[in-house]
């Protein structure tokens, strides 16, 4: 059970009393009559064969307040796409599978590439971006939520809690971020959030002072969660990274576009577990190593747009400050884990801190070496201005794929 403490510059909605999920869903069904809801599921084909997604779909199938579900399917050939259509057919809601690797959606992507408007690299950000474009053209949804497809501890309460703040017509929130404790199987998880993001933000405050943007990011209890919800109008101007900086990039964008009293976070799960990335200490292009570099670059870029000046000496100071702050956090988490009877491998924790410290410098050097880099996928407003027919063509491509292969 969470506390009721409000800290930071955004509102926190706590899970104080464990309301019955049926009670929440009854309210959401009433909200849906005024504010239709849609769910985005960005999925790799491999997740259809994993332990989590079948249960997730079984849970979603029981939800009556969702009008439609949009699934972005990555890394699938034709046979796998056909299988995906059958896999998701158990959903009673309207649902649409975007075969991102199919020839029709590849042709859409090539049109955007010709104008310099396509996502630069494959990944979750690209997947989510195309799902958003589809919803903007084909859907009447006014409240939209997104969550990952590898959640091993999924239940319908997570979805109800996530939708409620943006679906309730009496609330004024435009965007809501889900949070939870990354604790499962007697272990404390979530190393990138615990050991990179929070210590990095505290270190940047030591160096640059309490900048509003840093205070804002530090207000989120789990800034890297893949679960968030928003009103429809948020989608049109949203520019998101296509790399592992997606979650930080989304938070930065809503901070740019909205007052903080329009943003909130909500407790969506007492227990949350999903697949874990390896540390990949020997390969900066995979695992938590790549993730840490992409996230650090996303934060550095945003600070630069706010007038912060970086150079090589700055990044060396950031590394030194971060290292000390992060090691203090390791001790705090060790004590917290022991107090709760959880296991925490001190050696692995400090290994992660050492890698993240090195990667802060790598991220900084990459940032300095590529000052003209445009890391964000363009907003759908810009795409529609440059290619007015593209979203309707995207919708038709999805329809044609379904007709041809179902």
Structure description:
The radius of gyration is 21 Å and the shape is globular. The strands form two sheets. An eight-stranded mixed beta sheet has the order 1-10-6-9-5-2-3-4, sandwiched between helices. A two-stranded antiparallel sheet has the order 7-8. The longest helix has 28 residues, at 312-339. Helix 2 (53-60) links the parallel strand 2 (37-44) and strand 3 (66-74). By secondary structure, the chain is of the alpha/beta class. The protein contains 15 helices and ten strands. It has helices at residues 21-34, 53-60, 78-88, 103-114, 124-138, 156-167, 191-208, 212-217, 232-237, 246-257, 287-305, 312-339, 346-369, 380-386, 390-405, and strands at residues 11-13, 37-44, 66-74, 94-99, 143-146, 175-180, 183-184, 187-188, 228-231, 263-269. Helices cover 51% and strands 13% of the residues.
């Amino acid at each position: 059970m969470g506390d009721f403490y409000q800290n930071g510059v955004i509102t926190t909605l706590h899970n104080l009393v464990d309301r019955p999920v049926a009670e929440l869903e009854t309210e959401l069904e009433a909200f849906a009559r005024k504010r239709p809801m849609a769910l985005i599921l960005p999925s790799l084909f491999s997740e259809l064969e994993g332990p989590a997604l079948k249960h997730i779909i079984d849970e979603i199938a029981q939800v009556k307040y969702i009008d439609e579900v949009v699934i972005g399917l990555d890394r699938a050939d034709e046979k796998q796409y056909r299988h995906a259509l059958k896999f998701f057919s158990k959903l009673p809601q309207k649902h649409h599978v975007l075969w991102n690797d199919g020839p029709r959606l590849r042709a859409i992507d090539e049109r955007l590439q010709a104008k310099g408007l396509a996502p630069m690299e494959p990944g979750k950000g690209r997947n989510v971006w195309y799902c958003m474009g589809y919803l903007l053209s084909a859907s009447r949804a006014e409240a939209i939520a997104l969550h990952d497809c590898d959640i091993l501890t999924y239940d319908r309460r997570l979805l109800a809690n996530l939708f409620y703040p943006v679906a309730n017509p009496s609330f004024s929130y435009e965007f809501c971020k889900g949070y939870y404790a990354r604790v499962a199987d007697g272990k404390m998880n979530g190393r990138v959030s615990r050991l990179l993001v929070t210590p990095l933000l505290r270190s940047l405050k030591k160096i640059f002072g309490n900048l509003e943007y840093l205070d804002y990011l530090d207000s989120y209890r789990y800034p890297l969660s893949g679960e968030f919800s928003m009103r429809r109008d948020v989608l049109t101007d949203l520019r998101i990274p296509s790399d592992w900086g997606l979650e930080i990039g989304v938070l930065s964008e809503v901070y740019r576009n909205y007052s903080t009293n329009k943003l909130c976070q909500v407790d969506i799960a007492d227990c949350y577990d999903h697949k874990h990335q390896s540390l990949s200490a020997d390969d900066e292009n995979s695992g938590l190593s790549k993730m840490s570099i992409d996230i650090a670059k996303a934060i550095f870029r945003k600070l630069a747009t706010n007038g912060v000046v970086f150079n090589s000496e700055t990044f060396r100071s950031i590394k030194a400050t971060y290292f000390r702050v992060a090691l203090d956090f390791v001790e705090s988490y060790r004590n917290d884990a022991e107090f709760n009877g959880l296991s925490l491998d001190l050696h692995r924790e400090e290994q992660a801190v050492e890698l993240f410290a090195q990667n802060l410098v790598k991220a900084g050097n990459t940032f300095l070496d590529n000052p003209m880099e445009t890391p964000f996928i363009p907003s759908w407003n810009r795409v529609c201005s440059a290619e007015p027919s593209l979203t309707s063509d995207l919708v038709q491509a999805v329809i044609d794929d379904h007709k041809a292969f179902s």
